[in-house]
UniProtKB/TrEMBL annotation:
Subunit structure: Tetramer of two alpha and two beta chains.
Pathway participation: Amino-acid biosynthesis; L-tryptophan biosynthesis; L-tryptophan from chorismate: step 5/5
PANTHER family in UniProt: TRYPTOPHAN SYNTHASE, TRYPTOPHAN SYNTHASE-RELATED
Record protein name field: Tryptophan synthase beta chain
Amino acid sequence: MTTPFAPMPDAQGYFGPYGGQLVPPFLKQAMDDIGKAYAEITQRADFQQELRELQTDYVGRPSPIFHARRLSQQLGGAQIHLKREDLNHTGAHKINHCLGEALLARFMNKTKVIAETGAGQHGVALATACALVGIPCEIHMGQVDIEKEHPNVTKMRILGATLVPVTRGAATLKEAVDNAFEEYLKDPTNYFYAIGSVVGPHPFPMMVRDFQSIVGREAREQFLGKHGKLPDYAAACVGGGSNAMGLFTAFLEDESVKLVGVEPAGEGTDKPGRHAATLTMGKPGEIHGMKCYVLEDAPGVPAAVHSIASGLDYPGIGPQHSYLKDIGRVQYEVADDKETLDAYMRLSRVEGIVPALESAHAVAWAMRVAPGLGKEVNILVNLSGRGDKDADYVAHKLGL
Ligand SMILES: *Cc1c(COP(=O)(O)O)cnc(C)c1O
């Protein structure tokens, strides 16, 4: 039986009209080599066994699903359930694909793993995975983010990673991506670029999705086992889109499950440069080696973006999300900085769970819609990470 989703992507890395490899020929060769190695190595029993063992014994999988009873009761409508990716070692979903990528790099005999990081979560997760696997790790990070995410910066250094501060432009995630990419181009044969989300040229959107898809596979089985049915909604915040694809992939064929991606509206989608709602406000274009929705000032000129969550401020979006939006399988909504802060505080005080500001976007959406839904309706939210890293920033912002 054929479905709209399998096989996704096609051999050229396209999800409908999105994705592909918009890179120069020598780089296309490097990407194809990674794709080929990925296909071969991930089929090997020794790779699969090592990855499975590390997911269990090192990351602490499976992560539980927690029924936020008090929050649901207060809201007076739908039941909110949280997939606790915040409980993973290093505190976010990112360790899932970092472990996969670092292990793949080692199996490919690479000499250095390079990456960009926004909130610092990808950098910490990758530095962790590289320490574990035994490969030198170089992290590029915007100066603005370095100042905002100090604890993560310190952690990366402790873990032995080399930190490269990026001061050009807005000095956030987008510039860090450009800088890391330039370093990678110096020796694509020996370096491995570990992209931090389901973005970039093929095969990265596919690889990162596959390594993340354990989130949805677990969640589907856990929810079915506990409730005897699937959730009515599965929701996740969307930056590049990896935690959302990780959750959504297992549910794509389940028509009864409404999938909701929540983008950052920042200070308002009516304020250009002050949000990062790529699918909601952008249009099809190109960025970082792929076709996808983009926010841009002119063709090829990415717009400035903002979100209270630095892990979400990216002017592009994964190609599969772009496709899922067009075919209507996933509904994309927004949450702004203010309601995200409210959700951060509310979840902390009502359930004793401090969410990452990124994840709080998805919680904010659930809190907004729950009161209008029946008590028998179940919303599963991917709590992509924990919010310790944001605590000082939030306390300062709220005068706590
Ligand atoms: C990086 C990050 C995100 C955003 O990345 P996606 O690829 O969209 O998942 C979301 N939540 C947390 C906790 C993060 O660290």
